[in-house]
């Protein structure tokens, strides 16, 4: 709606350097369809280089701590840069996506970024979201047709089976912790 109404709000995304090509294609398609330019934030190349040099390109598979560090460098730090100077952050998270999101409110104060975090879809179901997408012909990532429900970095995301929680395809080699740190109330320490 922000794009269709040409509202004065910056729409941004984070390119971790490990995204699926289909995600890049969706960003390009969205820019074309809505005659806009989604601002893209990237991780710091020196920090990524140091992480890969010290621990290897896929260290996130070896421990939860390594995965959290990778998410911090590739996602959390660029988000901090993206939100610098912002007064409000509008997200698309929903309470039914994961245990850690169940207690999020529609409007809350985000202490880490010192801004209002607005979660307008927090009480929506997946069915309600898809109904709106179909009704308004909103473009979606083509990976959804292949069973990918929650889409993140390519090495950390897999398709889910029918009946699995939508976040089950994220960091599937881990048993519990299924958050990258973007929506946690306290900063992620690496």
Which key phrases capture this entry?
disordered C terminus; alpha/beta; two-stranded parallel sheet; 190 residues; three-stranded mixed beta sheet; Rossmann fold; 5 strands
What is this structure, in a nutshell?
By secondary structure, this protein is of the alpha/beta class. It has helices spanning 21-33, 45-55, 64-83, 126-136, and strands spanning 12-14, 39-41, 88-90, 107-110, 115-118.
Characterise this structure.
The chain has 2 domains: 1-84 and 140-144, 3-Layer(aba) Sandwich (Rossmann fold), CATH 3.40.50.620; 85-135, no CATH class. It is an alpha/beta fold and 190 residues long. The N and C termini lie far apart (36 Å). The radius of gyration is 17 Å and the shape is globular. The chain is built from 4 helices and 5 strands.
The CATH architecture of the largest domain is 3-Layer(aba) Sandwich
Unreliable stretches: 186-190
Quaternary organisation: single chain
- Tally of helical segments: 4
CATH class of the largest domain: Alpha Beta
Tertiary shape: globular
User: How is the main sheet built?
Assistant: 3 strands, mixed
Q: What strand line-up does the widest sheet have?
A: 3-5-4
Whole-number total of structural domains: 2
Q: Whole-number average pLDDT?
A: 90
The H-level CATH homologous superfamily of the largest domain, spelled out, is HUPs
Radius of gyration: 17 Å
Order of helices and strands: EHEHHEEEH
CATH-assigned fold name of the largest domain: Rossmann fold
N/C terminus separation:
36 Å
What is the percentage of strand-forming residues? Answer: 5-15%
How many DSSP-defined strands? 5
């Amino acid at each position: 709606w922000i794009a269709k109404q040409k509202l004065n709000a910056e729409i941004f995304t984070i390119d971790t350097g490990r995204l699926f090509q289909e995600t890049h294609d969706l960003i390009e398609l969205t820019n074309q369809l809505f005659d806009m330019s989604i601002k893209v934030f990237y991780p710091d190349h020196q920090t990524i280089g140091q992480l890969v040099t010290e621990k290897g390109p896929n260290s996130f598979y070896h421990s939860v701590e390594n995965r959290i560090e990778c998410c911090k460098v590739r996602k959390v730090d660029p988000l901090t840069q993206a939100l610098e100077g912002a007064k409000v952050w509008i997200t698309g998270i929903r309470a039914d996506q994961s245990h850690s999101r169940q207690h999020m409110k529609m409007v809350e104060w985000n202490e880490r970024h010192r801004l209002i975090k607005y979660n307008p879809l927090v009480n929506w179901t997946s069915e309600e979201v898809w109904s709106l997408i179909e009704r308004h012909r909103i473009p979606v990532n083509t990976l959804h047709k292949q069973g990918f429900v929650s889409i993140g970095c390519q090495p950390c995301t897999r398709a889910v089976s029918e009946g699995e929680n939508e976040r089950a395809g994220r960091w599937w080699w881990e048993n519990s912790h299924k958050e990258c740190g973007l929506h946690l109330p306290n900063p992620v320490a690496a």
